[in-house]
Model the fold of this input.
Amino acid sequence: MTHTGGCFLLRKKAIPSILLLCAWNLVSGQIRYSIPEELEHGAVVGTIANDLGLNSEELSSRRFRIASQTSLQHFDVNLQNGILIVNTRIDREVLCGQSLTCVLPLKLEIDDPVEEFDAEVEIVDINDNSPRFSNREIRLEIAESVTPGTRFILEAAQDPDVGSNSIRIYQLTPNEYFGLDVQTLGTWKLPELVVKKSIDREKKLTHQFLLTSVDGGVRERSGTAQVIIIVLDINDNAPVFPQSLYAVDLMEDAPPGTLVIKLNATDGDEGSNGVIAFSLGNYNDKKIYEVFRIDPKYGEIRVKGILDFEETTVYEIHVDAKDRGAPSLSAHCIVRVDIKDVNDNAPGMILKSVSSTVSEDAPTGTLIALVSVTDRDSNENGRTDCQISPGVPFDLKTSSRNSYRLIIRDILDRERAAEYAVAVTCKDQGSPPLSTNKTMIVHISDINDNAPSFIQSSHTVYVNENNSPGSSIGSVIAFDPDTEQHSQVSYIILESNVQGDPVSSYVYLNSENGIIYSQRAFDYEQLKSFKFRVQAQDMGFPQLSGNCAVNVIILDQNDNPPTITSPSPMDNNKTTVPRSADPGILIMKIIASDADSGQNARISYQLVQATDPGLFTVSQSSGEIRSFRRFNDGDATTQILVVQVKDNGHPSLSATATITLTITEQNEQIRSEVGDLHEDLQQSSDLTFYVIISLGIVSFLLLVIIVVLVIVICPTDGNLGHTGNCFFASCCYVRELDSKSRMHNSHVNLQIVPDSQLITNVLEVRRNGSLSDTYRYKVRSAPEATKMELITECKLNE
Done:
């Protein structure tokens, strides 16, 4: 809980100053207030309603109250404004004694719904007690032989206040013989009388001083006692303790007679002056005499009564050691006994059930029970931790210190558990730990919260094609963890279509047991699979249902033979092959298909009959028909091949194809011409190279001749003469080239054809045969040119 406490300014009549009092939060979220003691009835402690996050209208309607009886005597709540007030005068010394802290716990309750809150009110000490000596006169007998520096323990004053309000200093009336020194022993400040100067009994028999004790309050308080010193003679050695303060730890379960400590004191005197007797001092609380005793001769302190840590945690025992001299001398020491707690109190538990029957749809966080725990031990022995038995859908949440709320942690399911035995165990942290157990039975009431569910969200059913209509092909099963009518399940098929027809025309479902029957015979080649959904409904209210998908797989059977698609049956399956064909030449490829699937559609090819079995082969996987060897003149011109196409089903189905193959001679001639063509093309390529070289040379010579003729024939004035002469010269040269360049090949013709342009000639190379090539070359020369450009055009004609 997040809360900021309020601050108040309060004035008490007996205290003139103003005290600033505030409420603050502990780490755990608990509210804590701080007020001074001795406040009058009606004094404001804090705005408890606001600090708890409650409005004033809720206080009366929800019966806001203080639950603890002890706190109710000291405090009350104004239900009109939610202010916590003092109900009766509070005396801190009565409530907490000498404890440094005094805290009163408050347990607050509110109804509709029930809630508990914890708060604390710290009672702050005020300086309302003055130091007080138990004896108004302190008498000391001091021998005259006492030396300076000797110390005598004086009676200590007592102040019920604590902290800074307790005794701060002691003061002694100034004098020349005695001084005062204060020793701090534990929580006690002990005044010691110190001899400053030797005393003489003959000069002064008695000395009287005033001893004052002053506390540390804001307004100091003091108390006084008369110190009377009687000067004695002779016995000048007092007993001496090795230590002035002894600290002892004692377990609270120590039985009577247990030795607490053995004290030892020494006296330098002899005879009766050196005999020491031990006793419990007069300054002890009366409880000391009930719990402890001391042996006067041996100084052994032993347990006398019953120790209880829960009542008293520390005892300070004042011990005196006196000799038997005259006068008697004494020594004083303090034995501080710290009582150690023993885990002798098991936690006390109150288990208040809010509801023993819970509906399984109750939301998480629903309150089931309230648990309250107390332990009288302290520290680790008083720290408790409560847990519930594992494996239950509940949780134990801390609502306040030592208070728990048993709530629903997880969603309840009556089908999983109809009731729970919740064991609450509260254990302290002592050694050995003590615990308290209580068990409550929580019953879970049922609702229809479970829909039927299938074993699998998707079922697959395998059916062979060509099945018998009306036969069982599978089943679906749904379960409903509810009971009685909530668990009664019926099955229906959700409407859907398969290839345009309702699914009910394919299958039938028994509504009581979920068995699926076929309505027709299935054909794998028409329908390979189909799906439909089945719904399971219970008979509860509201009605709940669950669905699952059923996937029907039609299994193929080998009921379709292979079908030959190429060559087509409409063709005559006739083909020709030249006799000169090389071995391995592809003759034909058989292509087939099978409407089945898997191994039933795996096709293989086999040559089962042939006019010449060693002349052809068929690829088993591809169906390619190839020649096995070169055809001979003795091989029959007509070859009949029968190829079987077979699937891999059980039993295997097959089909056959008959092919008529004709071996022709014409193809041999074509092959020869093709071979010659390649040779001629090679020769033509070589010829072309030489022709180009020749044309280059001829063109150069032609250019030279033209230049010479122009110089010889044409006039010197620049007239080149008739252009026909130049043209004639060029043509003559070309014709001469034509006569010399005639090819001696029956299939190649070389011809120079004059172009229509001036001095342009065309060279054509022709080839005769079934495949003809024509190479056409153009040679152009311009009258003004000094070089010849050769343009080659090649044209291939079939």
